[in-house]
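Sequence design from tokenized structure. All designs in this work follow the same two-part layout: the structure record, then the generated sequence. An example of the structure record is given first.
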């Protein structure tokens, strides 16, 4: 909730006119509690999880030889009911794990100082904070994911996420509830270390979800703008991790490739990529 009653009060307090974005934020958030604003995150997670995989669902349903050129594992076909089954199971996990985690983590948000106040952060501030968040999350996710591949962790927790040896967009958050919580907490590391504005926090959570859905999409489109991001792993990179399955000791990182390169956990991938590509080419020709 903003400490101003009117736009004039806010402008007087800042000593300048509000920008267009700040005026919109004022009108939307001035009378809403910080807790209510934070809970928007749960709604965004649900809405974006539902909407973002839909283009991949349509692509999968419209499969043809042309589309198969971009399918990472073209032998695999998913029906509408297969994909909806995954969606429904994830929704249950959302209600049981993500919802309570989001709601009860509010004291942490308050403690670390995620602010809802004016002025809004500049574009550069948002950019640098998001960069810090993604690097911190990627690094911590690498080690947590690698840890989940030990015998106990895999058999009792991570096995669920690996039920999809050829992932689909809806399967990005398909995992044991304990994994959802542990990896969800990794998303908080960045905001804890570099706290920013609530809008930045919302944007971070949405971008993280977009990235996870893209890497689990099962499709590799050569025109994807994400391919221009240095060291970006992408769908083929993570698909390989699922393709190898439980025995996979390769490609643990969630976003970039450099952790796997530094710690030597993508040597197998780099060698097998050639074999993998040749197999794909042969399947496409059939
Ligand atoms: Zn794994
Ligand atoms: Zn995965």
């Amino acid at each position: 909730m903003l400490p101003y009653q009117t736009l004039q009060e806010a402008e007087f307090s800042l000593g300048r006119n509000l920008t267009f974005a700040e005026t919109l934020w004022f009108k939307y958030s001035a009378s809403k509690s910080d807790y209510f604003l934070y809970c928007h995150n749960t709604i965004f997670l649900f809405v974006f999880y539902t909407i973002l995989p839909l283009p991949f669902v349509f692509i999968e349903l419209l499969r043809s030889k042309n589309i198969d050129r971009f399918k990472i594992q073209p032998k695999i076909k998913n029906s509408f009911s297969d994909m909806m089954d995954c969606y429904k199971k994830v929704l249950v996990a959302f209600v049981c794990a993500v919802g309570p985690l989001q709601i009860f983590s509010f004291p942490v948000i308050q403690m670390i100082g995620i602010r809802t106040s004016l002025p809004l952060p500049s574009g550069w501030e948002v950019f640098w904070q998001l960069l810090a968040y993604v690097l911190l999350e990627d690094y911590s996710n690498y080690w947590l994911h690698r840890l989940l591949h030990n015998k106990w962790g895999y058999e009792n927790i991570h096995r669920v996420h690996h039920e999809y040896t050829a992932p689909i967009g809806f399967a990005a958050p398909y995992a044991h509830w304990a994994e959802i919580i542990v990896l969800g907490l990794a998303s908080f590391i960045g905001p804890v270390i570099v706290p920013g504005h609530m809008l930045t926090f919302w944007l971070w959570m949405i971008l993280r979800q977009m990235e996870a859905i893209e890497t689990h999409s099962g499709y590799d489109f050569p025109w994807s703008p994400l391919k221009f991001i240095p060291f970006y792993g992408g769908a083929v990179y993570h698909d390989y991790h699922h393709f190898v399955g439980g025995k996979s000791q390769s490609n643990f990182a969630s976003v970039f490739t450099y952790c796997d390169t530094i710690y030597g956990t993508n040597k197998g991938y780099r060698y097998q990529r050639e074999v993998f590509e040749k197999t794909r080419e042969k399947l496409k020709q059939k």
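Residues 33-285 form one domain. We note this feature because it recurs in several other targets discussed in the main text.
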